[in-house]
Amino acid sequence: MINLNTVGRYLFTVPFALFGIMHILNGTQMAGLVPSFVPGGVVWVYLIGIALIAASVSFIMKKKVYLAGILTAALMFTFVLTLYIPGLIAGDMMAMSGLLKDLGLAGGALMLANEYKDKD
């Protein structure tokens, strides 16, 4: 019998792994997305890529899932606050899809963290 929690955990993890790989492979092209008030530019893109891959590994291996889930949710909320809300204020209606995606991912990360709170 298929365990839906396991399937859901894998499906939730795949986008983070792919986003992380994309950050590393396309860091210089993505550097323009880093807000201008944040120093470091491309360095942040690479660090976020590494963080997303590390979270994916944690979720798949079921090691430190609580910590990875909390940190991933915090990262998604940071994107909402620094990328998407300013984009919406500036009139970029495409920012709404990113905002909703990252809010959903943050919610999923918090649910996953709660599921593994006492299991790490």
Describe it:
With 120 residues, the chain is mainly alpha-helical. The chain has one domain. Helix content is 77%, strand content 0%. The protein has 5 helices and no strands. The longest helix has 25 residues. The radius of gyration is 15 Å and the shape is globular. The model has no long low-confidence stretch (mean pLDDT 92).
Give a quick set of tags describing it.
mainly alpha; 77% helix; 0% strand; single chain
Short characterization:
The protein has about 120 residues and is mainly α. The chain has helices at about 5-25, 25-30, 40-60, 65-90, 95-115. It has one domain (about 5-115).
Q: What is the helix fraction of residues, given as a range?
A: over 70%
Going by helix content, strand content and strand pairing, the class is mainly alpha
Number of strands: 0
How many domains is the backbone divided into? 1
Q: Characterize the overall form.
A: globular
β-strand percent reads under 5%
Largest sheet: none
End-to-end span in angstroms?
25 Å
CA-based gyration radius: 15 Å
**Regarding quaternary structure, how should these chains be classified?**
single chain
Number of helices: 5
Low-pLDDT ranges? none
**Overall residue-averaged pLDDT value:** 92
What string gives the helices and strands in order? HHHHH
